[in-house]
Amino acid sequence: MPTTFASGPVRVRVPATSANLGPGFDALGLALALHDDVAAEVVPAGVRVTVAGEGAGELPPDDRHLVVVAMRAAFEQLGGQPPGLALECVNRIPQARGLGSSSAAIVAGVLLARALVTDGERRLDDDAVLRLAAGIEGHPDNVAPCLLGGFTIAWTEPAGGRAVSLPVAAGVRPTVFVPAGRGLTATARAALPSTVPHPDAASNAGRSALLVHALTTEPALLLPATVDRLHQDYRAAGMPATAALVGELRAAGVAAVVSGAGPTVLAFDAPPEGFTPGTEWEVWRLPVEVRGATVARGRLGHAERGPVAAGRKS
Ligand SMILES: Nc1ncnc2c1ncn2[C@@H]1O[C@H](COP(=O)(O)OP(=O)(O)O)[C@@H](O)[C@H]1O
Ligand SMILES: N[C@@H](CCOP(=O)(O)O)C(=O)O
């Protein structure tokens, strides 16, 4: 059946995410209440992208833009490309900091493309959206919480990425420490060895299983549950300030980890009174986002164009 396109714009709201959560490398993730909003419309020709907020003046306004790249991949699976595309992006997720901005862009693109095709949900169901987005990103651990919300466990089968979302226990209060400097995920992945010692793998298996229990049921166990031996130490030389802050917070009894591939630090509770991380860090309390990505008809309105998402506080 030929592909037909919806008339008028559609919009999507996608949350920031923190992946790994310490021992759950490439598997565990958490959605956070900080969002990008993107609207897209099929137009007669060309590709036009406007960007406000994070990445404005830096991101390519054309087919190289990651949201457009993801839309193109999704349209391919949906049966055909539209004649042209117009996008409006309002970005609040800091980019290249370990808060899942690239996954958010990819999820936004796949969901927008599906919503712009008249029978899109029949052609690309929710499981296929996750598989496609995880395939573009290369690992499923950010894409899963971005799509599903909450705390997610993701894994990869021969057919692609899959995930489940679990409710987070009351008393988990994520705080992120965001540095001004960037770090690309690809660079941080290149710092990892191709094999790891068996005791390190065994340690992470136990701690990530414990982390599922700690995050959903018993937050008092978050400190021992967030010990990692598979990625953080290998990456420390490339982000010494991040490694030092994780160490200081943990020494103060706060369960802290590298957020995603860094350089942001995620703590599962507020730092103790009087703890000063240094002026290079912006400190935001970001509640867990339970909703995941949401799609609606129409352009971005006043609410979506606002400067700060609900929950982000300095
Ligand atoms: N909202 C966005 N729109 C377009 N491209 C984006 C967006 N967010 C991130 N990107 C692209 O992804 C890169 C960052 O990806 P990555 O290194 O995986 O970091 P992060 O931890 O933020 O996901 C950016 O430099 C940019 O090229
Ligand atoms: N498991 C990945 C997670 C990358 O997350 P990001 O938010 O930094 O893109 C990794 O550790 O490489």
Please state roughly what percent of the residues sit in beta strands, choosing from under 5%, 5-15%, 15-25%, 25-35%, 35-45% or over 45%: 15-25%
Domains, number: 2
Radius of gyration: 19 Å
What structural class do you assign from the helix and strand content? alpha+beta
What is the CATH third-level topology name of the largest domain? Ribosomal Protein S5, domain 2
The overall strand count is 11
Mean pLDDT score: 96
What's the end-to-end separation, in Å? 51 Å
Helical segment count: 11
SSE succession? EEEHEHHHHEEEHHHHHEEEEH
CATH architecture label of the largest domain: 2-Layer Sandwich
Ions and ligands: adenosine-5'-diphosphate, ligand LJ64HWYM
- Stretches where pLDDT falls below 50 for ≥5 residues? none
Percent helix among the residues? Answer: 25-40%
